[in-house]
Amino acid sequence: MKGGPTTPDGTARRATVRLYLLLTGLDFFGDMCLTVTSVLLLGERGLSSSTIIWLIASVWLLEALLEVPTGVFADAIGRRASVVVGFAVRAVGYGMLFFSADPAVAVAGTLIAAVGTPFASGSLDAWAVDRLQREDPSANLDALFARGRMAENAGIVTGTVAGAAAGQLLGLAVPQLLAGAACLAGAVCTTVLLRGRTPVADGAGAGADRAGVRRELAAASLEALRGCRRALGTDRVLTGLLLCAAALCLFRGLPGVQWTVHFDVLTGGSLIALAAARCTGDLLQIPLLEVVARKVRQDPGARARIIVLAAVAAGLFLGGSALASSGWVGVPLYIGFVMAAGLCMPGLKAALNERVPARSRATMLSAGGLFNSLATGLGLYVMGGLGIGLADVTGVWTTAAAGTTLFGAAAAWFCVRSLRTPPVSAAVDSPAVGGASEEAEEDGARVP
Q1: Residue 173 and residue 147: Cα distance in Å, rounded?
Q2: Is 333 within 8 Å of 320 (Cβ atoms)?
Q3: Where is the stretch described as Disordered (predicted)?
């Protein structure tokens, strides 16, 4: 069995989970180093409020355009290669904003970093799920993604605090260097730790000619996209889950663009206070996620109830924060929103993965990422078109609060339907395209 033998004590399974958690934590640490300082740095570089909104919207739409092509790349060439590219390109983009103060370089670096993001979107999850299910077919995905969310939160908390401290003490550009270094470390760790145990076959991978790789990608792209279209046309539950995830991403993304400027006023400009406002909710989430994972293991039907309760709580917290005029009230309510909104996602991700066939998992998860990015980017373009500034939070946040509650309830309903109806697995499990590497097979690109 590829990926190491399955031992009675589950050594191989635990190793897979540890690698997944390590890389997930690094991924989020690098991105979250910039969560407090990025919008403020762009403003310092001379970009106006409206330009920043348009730029962030363009980042989301660029990621949307690249989601499916990068997912196909991961399915055809290998999950590991896709994750390495994602880390490396982000390291370059983030570093550009540290080494140059030119506004044009700031825009270019932001967009280059956005190119790297979708390469890892779905690929790391797909590698972990496929590898884990080969080592332990009874593995619980709710537990995997709950622990993955814990790793995300650990990266969010440490990255946010480290980036804020660096920005406060050393300057707003220094977190860019820290983020680039974290992504570079992620690329090195991925190269070393996810290395396949079998040699790369001739005709693909590092030794393949470029024309052969292009033919492989073209054939895989056509087949995978046809499969995605058939799956979304025949599996209504899968389509509903993807659309609900996109809506929840939108309604979490809109406040995520404005909170830095809004709370900068309420906290007196302290980056450390901003970091606390952003990451305390994720920190409080960590023990709750373990409770959620244990509850769902005992009762799979609890997944939907948890999503509903978390979405309603998130909507109430965000609505209250939007209407609060005092930072002493608004900041704790926003912390509650971050904490509750994150509890919706592990169950939703598990439901999606249970319905996606192994062979095209990265492509299908990237299609989900496309919906998420497209929804958020278009939402920000609407904000810009309506002339809504970064500090105009009341209308945007109350709308996001209502949307979070509504689509959280819809997501829970589709999760119930998912438990009761079998997935349409044949829709995307088409015959393999020839010429794949052994590395791609090891990464889960061609699961029999």
Answers
A1: 32
A2: yes
A3: 426-448
Number of domains within the chain? 1
What integer pLDDT is reported at residue 320 of this predicted model? Answer: 93
- Model pLDDT, residue 319: 94
* Two tokens, residue 143: 């537990």
Give pTM, 2 decimals.
0.69
Q: What is the pLDDT of residue 230?
A: 60
Percentage of the chain beyond pLDDT 90 is: 31
Does 5 reside within a domain?
Answer: no
CA–CA gap between residue 297 and residue 350 (Å, rounded): 12
Tokens of 4: 């190491």
Q: Both tokens of residue 404?
A: 């979070």
Q: How far apart are the first and last CA of the chain?
A: 12
Which domain does 52 fall in, by range? 11-442
Contact 31, 159 (CB under 8 A): yes
Task: Write out the H or E segment, with its range, that includes residue 27.
Answer: helix 11-32
User: What is the 8-class DSSP label of residue 201?
Assistant: P
- Within 8 A by CB and 6+ apart from 216, the residues are 76, 77, 204, 208, 433, 435, 436
CATH assignment at residue 118: 1.20.1250.20
The residues of the chain scoring below 70 in pLDDT are: 1-10, 138-139, 194-234, 357-367, 423-448
CB 224 within 8 A of CB 363: yes
DSSP per residue, 141-184 = HHHHHHHHHHHHHHHHHHHHHHHHHHHHHH-TTHHHHHHHHHHH
For residues 144 and 20, what is the distance between their CA atoms, to the nearest angstrom?
9
- Residue 381: predicted pLDDT: 87
- The per-residue pLDDT for 113 is 95
